[in-house]
Amino acid sequence: MSRNEDALRLFRTLGATTAVVGQSIAGETPVFVVPVTVEALSPILTAVPMQLLAWRMATNRGIDPDTFRIHPARFKQGGSGIAL
Q1: Which of 31-39's residues contact partners 24+ apart within 8 Å by CB, and which partners?
Q2: In the chain, alpha helices (H)
């Protein structure tokens, strides 16, 4: 199982709704399709927009995205299944 598949499983264990960005993972159809580009530009087209989206969603819910790994207990429990 790939690291991406491990992360997908972890997030679902935590009760998160997941979306795939880029290529298909574990048979999932990508929700956010990323245009083909040179490898050096790939992080700009994938990681940065998704980090901004995650930050916005967390702050809208009143969650501090910098401390989610230790609060509340369900995150600590779910996080024990994967090494980041």
Answers
A1: none
A2: 3-13, 42-45, 47-60, 73-79
Dihedral angle sign, alpha carbons of residues 35, 40, 41, 47 = positive
* 75, 69 contact by CB (below 8 A): yes
Q: Is the pTM of this model over 0.70?
A: no
For the chain, 84 residues long, give each residue's pLDDT as a single digit of tens: 678 788 888 888 888 888 777 777 767 766 777 778 888 888 888 888 888 888 898 889 888 777 655 556 666 666 666 665
> For residues 54 and 71, what is the distance between their CA atoms, to the nearest angstrom?
16
Distance CA 73, CA 51 (A): 23
**C-beta of residue 26 within 8 angstroms of C-beta of residue 5:** yes
Q: Where are the domains of the chain?
A: 3-79
